[in-house]
Here is the input.
Amino acid sequence: MALNFKETEKIYIIIISFLGLSSFWINLDFFAQSLWDWVLIYMLVGSIILLNFFPISLPPKANSFSMDSSIYLAILFLYGISFTLKVLFIYSVVELFYRRKMSFWRHLFNFSMYCLMISGAYYSFLFFHGEIGKINYYNLLPYLVSLLVYFGINVILILLFFLCVGQIFKGALELGILKEACVSYSITLLLSLVLAILLWEAKYFGLFLLIILVTLLSFIFKKFLVTIQPHHKVS
Here is the structure.
């Protein structure tokens, strides 16, 4: 008996949720952080919440993206996977409350996707001899590979989701704007390295500088998009 798209979607969400939660549980070390580390964790969660309110819009179609991935990658490079998963978990709990209209299963699916993306980026970073806790300016290959793996897992999981719900062509159109995707992920990598350097050198002040930078970029891009919009004259 053939499964319909609704049943296929449920099975896919269950599988990804199981894999993501398994990855979260395996890589989490709850007691690894000190009191000051938890202060930084909560500040990072607050930063992600704030940056999601100031997405960067790219011309010409005003497709926007937030900088949460930059934060996850930056703290992954500096503090490792357990620290990053704690930030992700706390932010996901907060998001569960302020996005109540979204179903619980959607929240769980998104959380699981991020767990898999972060885990893939972390182990690929280590595989190419990246060093957790410092920024190596002379060997950028691990950073590039980890970003590509992070991006690749994201694309594959979402395309498979669209395939399961019978909207593969719609999904391909939404994800297939290669030029804009390359630009957005290049900015993500650049800002993740910038944030990692700022956190390494100045920690809290560095995080504050990144928030100001991204907020300004958000306003600048929005202003630019308004100026390039065609103006229609009423006759």
